[in-house]
Give the backbone structure.
Amino acid sequence: MMALAIVEPIEAPKEKPEEFVSPPNIITTPCDPWPRPYYLEDGLRKVPPYHFTYNTYCKQRWRGRELLDIFATEFRDRPQEYYKDAIECGNVVLNGKKVSSVRQIVNNGDIISHTLHRHEPPVTARPVGVVHEDNDMIVINKPAGVPVHPAGRYNYNSIVEIMRAERGHGWNPLPCNRLDRLTSGVMFIGKHPKAAEKLTDQIMARTVKKEYMARVIGEFPEGDLICDQPVMQISPKLGLNRARASGKDARTIFKRMAYYPPKEMINGVDPEANDARSEHEKMRDSKMAWRSKRGHSIVRCIPLTGRTHQIRVHLQFLGHPISNDPIYSNQGVFGPSLAVGDARSDEDENVIAKLSKMGKSEVAEAMEYHNDMMEEYEKKKAEKLTGAKCEACDTPLYSDPGPHELGIYLHARRYACQDGKWDYETPLPEWALPPPGTDGPTVTTEETDPMALVDDNGQPMLNGDSSNANSQIKHQKPLWTMPG
């Protein structure tokens, strides 16, 4: 006889309704003045201090780190004590709420808000030049010293905000290419997203040829020279990059357009016979290896890759840095050799420590700063902490930058589509012209055009044929051998 068991039906587990997770709270800027509060003074565009709130999502490298540690290591504008106080008093909050400790861990998706009395550095008062404009795009000649986007200490003093102020509050400029703050030259500003996306895709696909002009110390070698040293970011906080074997692939073609020896050499004067320097000055100059590199060269540069500071780093490696570069021509940071041929990492920590003082307690002295033709008063007009503090927020105040700090001798002169559909260029910048009383090129010529050496795939031409094994371009020679 078989027993029957009653089995109760098994109910499927009920699905929990999806819970809505609200986005993190953010704090809005107390005011957004319009018209923008610009005023011009001593050749500078200035903005009075104002209250502002920065809002930023947690970056990947910030995940799992303490809040104070992020501010202390990532931001150079203020000392660590300021950020500690700002967190403790609630001027820095996480997801709209005050944190209980400066050691609060920041996680993916968090939003950090920082409200402060903002002091923007002044920038040049030179206008944003227009090279070309149509219904889709504005091609501009960016002034040196002005950042493209609001970032760091700059907000209204940026290309985006200056152009918005000129064309209306509702106008949204869309930059398509990137230039460093200190670099001048050709930039593309999209008038609508579709146009900006199309050109940005061309640049990312490396179907756009780019040419830069640079003024470097000494007599740059003649002929076509290619540098393919990899470039690595050493300090995001300081914007420092170096030539490193473990860095990202980088390649630049260089071609000298002109060399201008010192004035006394042009006039046939023996520098030694007319040396009016004191013994102290001679001893000082003997420790500056770059002093032996007389005069300056104007060099045309073709970057085949787009690494940050690529041209500046490659010129430093070759022993001919941009003469007024506050980073890569800085003897106080890199020593008398200026790191020519140096691809080692032994001195990176020392370099970072020295560079972090520049613009704080010390003036950033590039080699052009030592130029005997620069008047003494201009040397004293340099941006650094003054020792004074803002009466409203106790922020340490900076002096105005001197004219020699508003940009470097690096200019994006020409951008051209590889299929020949468009080609935009600017005149040579003033610093690339022959010195007064000296003969030299005032326009570029085909003979000195390194763009002709790049094929349609963005690779160096080899005797006019990219498949030929006999290169007409010289690779960089070991200009200096590291000890050991």
